[in-house]
Automatic annotation (TrEMBL):
The keyword Nuclease applies. Keywords: Endonuclease, Hydrolase, Nuclease. GO terms for molecular function: endonuclease activity; nucleic acid binding; zinc ion binding. InterPro entries: HNH, HNH_nuc, NA-targeting_endonuclease. It comes from Streptomyces populi. Pfam families: HNH. SMART domains: HNHc. This is HNH endonuclease. Residues 71-120 form the HNH nuclease domain. The keyword Nuclease applies.
């Protein structure tokens, strides 16, 4: 559930994130809480903060006017949170849903994170041909999503170059 609004340092709304990701951004000093829930607090061993409803990034991130985030292998792994689309275990490779040998493209909608074993097993076949159904459908992240996915994982290398320069 994405329930926390993220503002750029300039206060423009960028996107929404899960509460967990919002808290991580605040704890990593990448964002500050602009508006908190009036009553709820998050408490842990070394943690006691109000539940954020709105956070604001500490650094201004320039988001060019683009409809699509540029595709990259690392971007696909970050989007899929390093989980294999076929078995759910840790993924280290990127699989083409429609294999390149059959004309499949390097695109957000045709690529998924995959463990090396499943990637090898699927080989040059579609999920139907290999009888390996996708656990979830690939999606196209917005540029703001791509940035927030990467920020949440502290994985600046996965940022598209045009975002890495402003966020790193
Ligand atoms: Zn797998």
């Amino acid at each position: 559930m994405r329930d926390t609004l993220v503002l750029n340092a300039s206060f423009e709304p960028l996107s929404t994130v899960t509460l967990n990701r919002a808290v991580v951004l605040v704890l990593q000093d990448k964002a500050v809480v602009e508006q908190a829930h009036p009553e709820l607090r998050m408490r842990g061993a070394a943690l006691d903060i109000p539940v954020p409803r709105v956070i604001r990034l500490c650094r201004y991130v320039r988001v060019p006017f683009r409809r699509q985030a540029p595709w990259s292998r690392r971007g696909v792994l970050v989007r899929d949170r390093h989980r294999c689309a076929y078995c759910g275990r840790r993924a280290t490779t990127v699989d083409h849903v429609v294999p390149r040998a059959q004309g499949g493209q390097d695109s957000w909608l045709n690529t998924v994170a995959s463990c090396a074993e499943d990637n090898h097993r699927k080989a040059d076949r579609t999920p139907e041909q290999a009888q390996m159904p996708l656990l979830r459908q690939p999606f196209e992240p917005t540029p703001a999503d791509a940035m927030l996915l990467a920020l949440g994982q502290d994985d600046y290398d996965a940022l598209p170059e045009w975002l890495a320069q402003s966020a790193a």
